[in-house]
């Protein structure tokens, strides 16, 4: 097999909060089309790493490069427009708006860019965007709830909708922060199936996850983070058998 | 009508609104409000509130400084009437442009913050404008006396085309003086047009972005939208609405004073919007009408009128009623307004429009659940 394309390169990133070394010497290469899971015990720095990638937190040193473009110092909306979408740990949705509109808005962002004074059309006449959004809602199984107010959805449905909001943008890289946290086993499995379906489309994903069932059903590659450092990196089977990992994480959990 | 331009529901709303507005001299007459002066104010403050709602209701930014744009509109209009021509159209045009530019600058600065800090910044800028109008800018604003039209105004365009006026100058529309019912219909036309524009904004993709900013600004940014130009556009549009309203007030009553820029005037439009229903199209207009009605009708009542009204009651009882109710009318009309406001906010947080919706829902339920499904069926 030919050398895989690296889409995202986290290069020598350090992040300090005062005296706390939250991330030390992080070097990660995410390959195109792969699902890369980042696991680690609580407080290992997983969310910090994701926030550095997405531009929410500036790294103390080092940089993040996405497909040849340096992300460090860019605004979240610029990073999104480059083709990176994010699912949050607690769903960030437009709770006052309908489910359909929630999904139409990201589609408009993809089409119209970061700002457009689009006042002369009506939303109802955006039939193309609407059809796209309905198609996406069908994919995630929310089509029957499209007229509901998003805030009144169940927790699992909110996450599914947020996923649809990201997927409709056809991002080149999808970041998922514990996409199944707080879900029932049944909902978790539906989400895993959904994510497998996206994988078939060749979308690159970075998943932060606690649930080992989710990680081992989805990941092509796993990086284990402990105390701000990557202690292991490799295929799921290699990582599972790594004694350092068992000690720091897997072993500690049992 | 072209469905790309407007949905059927919106069209019906616009037609209904137009009918109600144009027929106001008829249906408001029994309430003692069918006179042109008050009707003009209903229209003018209706425009002010519709525009304010685009910022506050749709985008979720509460400005406490919109009276500044109202005042800028007034001053610009009077200057246009003084320097250029007595025709109202250039006055309105310049007022909208200048207040829009003013809003662009103030909005650019204030929108660096959100929430309460944004509100305080707008309040500070508006108070600065108010104080400047009274002090440094007296040559432009004529200070406490207020800016007014005089016979000796240059009016270069009128002079160039050879128009001469006799007596006190009065603003005109293509040569017809704007006063009385003509003034009312002139303002009513603008209210209907601006209502239509607000409807279009609310129903457009741009309006959806404003609502999304109000709902979750973080998600907007991670969805790829730069929220600041959206909020700034909403700010400028609402500033232009305020400028238009201020200019109409100056055209129908050509005297611009700085008191209309004071923070109480900014607070008034906030009250109007909340009273009627934040984020609804019709609500702010109704709120504006109710407040202006109270201001004019209740403040005109006095103890003599009340005494005549309660004349049928036995002696002693009638004086009691006159004493108590007398506190709530005349100069005390703010007391009534405050009471109404408190009652509405406590029992109907969505304003009068929420009351309307609840009543409609009650009828719906008793009507056999026929029309509740119409939206879902679309």
Task: Based on the model shown, name its key terms.
heterodimer; A: 254 residues; alpha/beta; 38% helix; B: 378 residues; mainly alpha; ABC transporter involved in vitamin B12 uptake, BtuC; 19 helices; globular; disordered C terminus
Write a compact overview of the structure shown.
Chain B: Keywords: Cell membrane, Membrane, Transmembrane, Transmembrane helix. The complex is a heterodimer of chains A (254) and B (378). Chain A has 254 residues and is an alpha/beta fold.
What does it look like?
By secondary structure, chain A is α/β, with parallel strands linked by helices. Chain A folds into 2 domains: 1-83 and 171-254, Rossmann fold; 94-170, no CATH class. Chain A contains 9 helices and 10 strands. Chain A has helices at 46-54, 76-81, 99-112, 127-140, 155-167, 185-200, 212-218, 236-241, 243-253; strands spanning 6-17, 20-31, 35-39, 61-66, 69-70, 84-87, 173-177, 204-208, 221-226, 229-234. In chain A, strands 6-7-8-3-9-10 form a 6-stranded mixed β-sheet, with helices on both faces. The model of chain A has no long low-confidence stretch (mean pLDDT 87). By secondary structure, chain B is mainly α. Chain B has a domain at 8-261: ABC transporter involved in vitamin B12 uptake, BtuC (Orthogonal Bundle). Chain B has 19 helices and 4 strands. In chain B, the strands form 2 sheets. Chain B has a two-stranded antiparallel ribbon with strand order 1-4. A two-stranded antiparallel ribbon of chain B has the order 2-3. In chain B, strand 2 and strand 3 form a beta hairpin. In chain B, helix 5 crosses helix 6 (115-134). The longest helix of chain B is centred in the middle third of the chain and has 26 residues, at 227-252. At the A-B interface, helix 2 and helix 3 of A face helix 9, helix 10, helix 11 and helix 12 of B. Chain A: Keywords: ATP-binding, Nucleotide-binding, Transport. Chain A: GO terms for molecular function: ATP binding; ATP hydrolysis activity. Chain A: InterPro entries: AAA+_ATPase, ABC_AA/LPS_Transport, ABC_transporter-like_ATP-bd, BCA_ABC_TP_C, P-loop_NTPase. Chain A: This is ABC transporter ATP-binding protein.
């Amino acid at each position: 097999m030919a050398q895989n394309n690296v889409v995202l390169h986290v290069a020598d990133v350090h992040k300090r909060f005062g005296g706390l070394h939250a991330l030390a010497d992080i070097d990660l290469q995410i390959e195109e089309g792969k699902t890369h899971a980042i696991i680690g015990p609580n407080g290992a720095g997983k969310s910090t790493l994701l926030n550095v990638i997405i531009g929410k937190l500036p790294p103390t040193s080092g940089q993040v490069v996405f497909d040849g473009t340096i992300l460090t110092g860019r605004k979240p909306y610029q990073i999104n427009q480059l083709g990176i979408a994010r699912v949050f740990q607690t769903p960030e949705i437009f709770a006052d708006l309908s489910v359909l509109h929630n999904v139409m808005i990201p589609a408009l962002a993809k089409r119209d860019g970061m700002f457009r004074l689009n006042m002369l059309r009506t939303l109802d006449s955006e039939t193309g965007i609407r059809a796209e959004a309905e198609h996406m809602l069908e994919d995630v199984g929310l089509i029957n709830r499209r007229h509901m107010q998003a805030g009144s959805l169940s927790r699992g449905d909110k996450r599914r909708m947020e996923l649809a909001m990201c997927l409709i943008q056809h991002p080149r890289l999808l970041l998922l922060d514990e996409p199944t946290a707080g879900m029932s086993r049944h909902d978790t499995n539906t989400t895993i199936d959904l994510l497998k379906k996206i994988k078939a489309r060749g979308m690159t994903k970075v998943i932060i996850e606690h649930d080992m069932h989710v990680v081992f059903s989805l990941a092509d590659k796993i990086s284990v983070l402990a105390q701000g450092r990557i202690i292991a990196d490799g295929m799921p089977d290699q990582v599972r058998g790594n004694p350092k990992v068992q000690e720091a994480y897997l072993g500690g959990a049992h | 009508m072209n469905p790309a331009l407007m949905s059927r529901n919106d069209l019906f709303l616009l037609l209904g609104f137009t009918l109600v507005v144009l027929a106001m001299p008829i249906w408001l007459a029994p309430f003692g409000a069918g006179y042109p002066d008050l009707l003009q104010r209903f229209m003018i403050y209706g425009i002010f509130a519709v525009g304010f709602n685009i910022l506050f209701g749709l985008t979720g930014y509460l400005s406490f400084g919109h009276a500044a744009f109202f005042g800028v509109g007034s001053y610009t209009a009077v200057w246009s009437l003084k320097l250029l021509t007595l025709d109202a159209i250039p006055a309105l045009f310049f007022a909208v442009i200048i207040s829009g530019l003013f809003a662009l600058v103030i909005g650019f600065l204030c929108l660096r913050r959100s929430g309460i800090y944004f509100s305080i910044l707008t309040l500070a800028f508006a108070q600065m404008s108010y104080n400047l109008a009274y002090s440094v800018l007296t040559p432009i604003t004529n200070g406490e006396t207020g800016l007014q039209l005089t016979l000796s105004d240059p009016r270069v365009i009128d002079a160039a085309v050879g128009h001469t006026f006799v007596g006190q100058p009065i603003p005109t529309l293509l040569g017809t003086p704007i006063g009385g019912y003509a003034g009312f219909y002139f303002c009513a036309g603008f209210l209907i047009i601006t209502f239509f524009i607000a409807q279009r904004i609310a129903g457009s993709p741009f309006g959806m972005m404003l609502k999304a900013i109000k709902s979750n600004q973080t998600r907007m940014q991670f969805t790829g939208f730069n929220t600041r130009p959206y909020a700034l556009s909403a700010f400028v549009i609402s500033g232009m609405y305020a400028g238009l309203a201020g200019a109409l007030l100056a055209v129908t009553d050509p005297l611009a004073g700085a008191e209309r820029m004071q923070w109480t005037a900014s607070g008034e439009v906030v009250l109007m919007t909340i009273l009627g229903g934040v984020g609804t199209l019709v609500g702010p207009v109704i709120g504006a009408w109710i407040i202006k009605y109270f201001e004019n009708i209740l403040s005109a009542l006095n103890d003599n009128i009340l005494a005549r009204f309660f004349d049928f009651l036995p002696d002693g009882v009638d004086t009691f009623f006159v004493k108590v109710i007398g506190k709530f009318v005349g100069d005390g009309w703010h007391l009534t307004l405050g009471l109404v406001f408190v009652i509405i906010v406590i029992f109907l947080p969505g304003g009068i429009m929420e009351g309307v919706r609840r009543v409609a829902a009650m009828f719906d339920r008793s009507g056999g659940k026929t029309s509740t499904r119409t939206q879902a069926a679309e």
